[in-house]
Specification:
This protein is of the alpha+beta class. It has 17 helices and 23 strands. Strands 15-14-20-19-18-16-17 form a seven-stranded mixed sheet, sandwiched between helices. A five-stranded mixed sheet has the order 2-1-5-3-4, with helices on both faces. It binds iron/sulfur cluster (2 copies). The site of one iron/sulfur cluster has 14 residues, from helix 7.
Length: 532
């Protein structure tokens, strides 16, 4: 545990800490490009130079171990001049095309130039030309002229995905990043190289030129793509959402990984990263009731009346065993709990949760075969996962009302079984967010909000309960599932009512043993584990 002095402040740090990390702890952060806490140390960008007393030359702080008694200066004249020189050196061959660069606004060259540069450039020779706008794989575009050769992207492919697609080719000022002939940057985590590239050399082909980054809102959430529950930021277009009369176009522009030491650290997979399009595309936005062969637009009030009167009639006839409710492992803990409470209050026992239609890709890094974000939450709430049994009963004509909330059962069980169900039951209700086989087969369609449109929690496969937060308003007439269940309860005079998702969670945590002691405050940004 060495104790050192940094800019006059004394700080004691764990053994193995570098001077750069010690500077951060002491509140004197130094700039860096090539250093990344999740990668090996390259020490090649030189911008993290600091002055260490009794050492003749400036030292790179990312590679220098903190030692007992060190006296470090991060803002001495010598250090500031060196930083300026390093920046000027890095920018010698840079095209300075910020106005047309998609990284502008989140570029570390721009930031550091404004913070530490502000020099008068002395270089007036011709700049070295390199390839621009080269697609190096399906997700990433390379502009070799903007690259500062920090090697973060190369180390990511060597050390994290171990796929090694990227390398540095040629020598001297002709060195450039690239892929070997016939090779593509095409691993399951390729988008991460864009996240860690500190400049505009690697940009996201999906996001490029869609929106200037200063128009983006950022909301902390969790990826619903699998049971890993990677922490993310949802970036939506502030300019568009401030102009609600603009009726078309996507609201969510991109997803970015958010650091969580216990879950995904700095990374996320491409499957999760690019699945955001379902937030705005092919959405169910109106309440619909089947009218002969087609559908007519209905109102929430009429639709819930239809559903409530069917339920009331079956209850009065003591036939609630002919009611089946299928929920989804895509639903939040709050949604599942609200559905369970209403079903319990009515005396409906046929309640089960449907998992994903088919397993996804699994690896030993982040991706999980279970493509649901909340299987563990459904289990912790004591819900049965035997939806197939319930669906089979509906197909055999043993149910009068099938209420499917979330999963596309047609995708899971096939069109012909779904047709059988549709003919066998009196009322087939589908409550979901996107158009699919189930919304086309059901007699009553209730539009539900997606994860980016509501507050709530998912429980990942570690048993970590994590918050999702509303980034954009529910599209059209869609509503969060927990809210639809609350409104149905009101139509049935069932005393289950919540003002918001946090009220649902507060009751859930007080009644469900696995969630005891948890609250939105306790969960915070990093999540909290279920009770063992
Ligand atoms: S492309 Fe970006 S991450 Fe890769 S070496 Fe160049 S600047 Fe660094
Ligand atoms: S590993 Fe799973 S949770 Fe993480 S980004 Fe990919 S799909 Fe989303």
């Amino acid at each position: 545990m060495p104790t050192l002095t940094i800019d006059g402040k004394t700080v004691t740090v764990p053994d193995g800490t570098t001077v750069l990390q010690a500077c951060e702890q002491a509140g004197s952060p130094v700039p860096f490009y090539c250093y990344h806490p999740g990668l090996s140390i390259a020490g090649n960008c030189r911008i993290c130079l600091v002055e260490i007393e009794k050492t003749p030359k400036l030292q790179i702080s990312c590679y220098t171990p903190a030692a007992e008694g060190m006296v470090v200066h991060t803002t001495s004249d010598k250090v500031l001049k060196a930083r300026q020189d390093v920046l000027e050196f890095l920018l010698i061959n840079h095209p300075l095309d910020c106005p047309v660069c998609d990284q502008a606004g989140e570029c570390w060259l721009q930031d550091y130039y404004m913070n530490y540069g502000l020099y008068n450039p002395k270089f007036d020779e011709a700049k070295v030309k390199k390839p621009k706008a080269v697609p190096v794989g399906p997700t990433v575009m390379l502009d070799a002229e903007r690259c500062i050769l920090c090697s973060r992207c190369v180390r990511f492919c060597d050390e994290i995905t171990k796929t090694g697609e990227l390398g540095i080719f040629n020598r001297g000022d002709h060195s450039e990043i690239g892929v070997a002939p016939g090779i593509e940057l095409k691993n399951d985590y390729s988008g991460c190289v864009v996240d860690i590239c500190p400049v505009g050399a690697l940009t996201d082909r999906d996001f490029r030129f869609k929106c200037r980054v200063w128009y983006l809102n950022s909301t902390k959430s969790v990826c619903p793509g699998c049971s890993m529950g990677c922490n993310i930021e949802i970036h939506d277009n502030r300019e568009r959402t401030q102009r609600p009369h603009v009726a078309t176009g996507a609201r969510v522009m991109r997803l970015k990984p958010r650091y969580n030491a216990e879950v995904n650290r700095w990374w996320m997979c491409d499957t999760g990263r690019y699945a955001y399009t379902a937030i705005d595309e092919q959405r169910l936005t109106t309440v619909q009731q089947r009218n002969g062969q087609g559908y007519q637009i209905s109102t929430w009030n009429d639709a819930l009346d239809t559903l409530a009167s069917t339920l009331r009639r079956l209850r009065d006839a003591r036939q609630l065993d002919r009611v089946g409710i299928i929920l989804s492992t895509q639903m939040t803990n709050e949604d599942l709990y609200a559905a369970k409470r209403v079903a319990q209050a009515l005396g409906i026992r046929n309640l089960a949760v449907q998992g994903p239609a088919r397993p996804g890709k699994h690896d030993d890094f982040l991706m999980k075969a279970d493509t649901s974000p909340n299987t563990r939450g459904a289990q912790a709430l004591g819900l049965s996962l035997d939806a197939a049994g319930l669906f089979g009963r509906a197909a055999r004509g043993e149910l009068s009302l099938l209420y499917v909330c979330g999963p596309d059962v047609v995708d899971t069980y096939g069109r012909s079984v779904a047709d059988q169900v549709q003919q066998s039951v009196e009322l087939f209700v589908y409550q979901g967010s996107n158009v699919g086989g189930s919304s086309q087969a059901a007699g009553l369609v209730l539009p539900a909000a997606v994860y980016a449109e509501k507050d709530g929690t998912f429980t990942n496969d570690q048993g970590r309960v994590q918050r999702i937060r509303q980034a954009v308003a529910p599209l059209g007439e869609s509503k969060p599932d927990w809210k639809i269940w609350t409104e149905l309860a009101a139509h049935l005079d069932v005393p289950v009512s919540y003002a918001d998702a946090s009220a649902v969670f507060a009751e859930l945590a007080s009644r469900e043993p696995a969630f005891q002691g948890l609250s939105y405050e306790v969960i915070g940004d990093a999540g909290a584990l279920l009770k063992a």
